[in-house]
Amino acid sequence: MGTEGEGLARPALGHGARERVERAVLSTLLALPEAVKRRLAGPPLVRDGLTLDLDTQLLLRLAERDPEPPLHTLTPAQARAQLRASAGRVVGRPPAMAEVVALALAGGAGPLPARLYVPAEAVGGESALTIYFHGGGWVVGDLDTHDSVCRALARSSGARVLSVDYRLAPEHPFPAAVEDALSAFRDAVSRAGELAIDPRRVALAGDSAGGHLAAVTARLAAGDPQPPAFQLLIYPATDFVEVSRSRLEFAEGFLLTKENMDWYEDNFVGANDRRDPRISPLYAEDLAAVAPAMVVTAGFDPLRDEGEAYARRLHEAGVPTILRRHAGYVHGFTHIMIGDSGPREALAAMGGVLRGALAR
User: Fold this and answer.
1) CA 208 remoteness from chain centre
2) Which of 96, 251, 262, 314 could tie 321 with a disulfide, CB 3.0–4.6 Å?
3) Any catalytic annotation for residue 301?
4) pTM as predicted
5) Which of 146, 326, 331, 335 is catalytic?
6) pLDDT grade for 15, boundaries at 50, 70 and 90
7) Which among 163, 208, 244, 246 is annotated as catalytic?
8) CB environment 284-310: b (16+ within 10 A), e (fewer)
9) Is residue 331 flagged as an active site residue?
10) pLDDT of 246 above 90
11) Active site annotation includes 208
12) What are the chain's domains?
């Protein structure tokens, strides 16, 4: 166990000299007057009737000048290190927590590292809990790469947030991550007293691959004695069968590329049936009993259409569902904590929805 005062306050993410310099340079560029940023970024980029956010366009323009090695040329360890470095350039100053505690949760095949975030307003009493599954294509990502997102949600929701470090592919392909997510949820609920949470007010949340795991877990646990109370799905992957229009429209040039998606899917899914609802939740037939949901999408995201299709499926099944598209942003925008306030405001709004959904 460890608390914020014992070294967990600021993970080592992005603390290398190069990452610090790059973060400072990006922060300076994004603080320039809008007219200057427009000259650097180029003319407004309009696609599918949407206009790309200026700061996002500038970041993408800069990334084009110094491209990272393609994922398929890297080992899983190298890909994980690459994400940690790139995430460290845009994290900004993470929100402070009253406590940050390292602990372990039961996984599908053994203990999983986890991190509990306790905001100031949750200290000294029982609170709601959001269990968070990080993104990263089921191959990369960890507790540190998503530290700022979890802190932001804890602060804005007023509830504890429990981030889960599930097993990653290709070392642990499907269904390992699914089994871990379900086991972690059930273990957290069973330890409500220890975690100082109300087991009736536990939400599932995640972004991208983590949004997929949250959606799948919400369905698999819907019949539990104490099922999830809410699900927050941030640009989730929901369909490994059909190629949506947004996957074609935004296949290149918007951070998450077709090449990267293929690499993630091959490592995670392998030869398994892609219509299995644990892989493609869009094809699940038993959605009526799942928890109310908020589905968040980004306009310039290849996963946009399948996320919105899943929101429609939930609505058609009678599940109270909020769908919110952030039109000018790309996949992964919630991690961009420098530059314009849009991503921070989006996370604050998500936290506000969690606060209302998990109210007593």
Assistant:
1) 5
2) 314
3) yes
4) 0.94
5) 331
6) low
7) 208
8) beebeebbbbbbbbbbbbbbbbbbbbb
9) yes
10) yes
11) yes
12) 89-357 (3.40.50.1820)
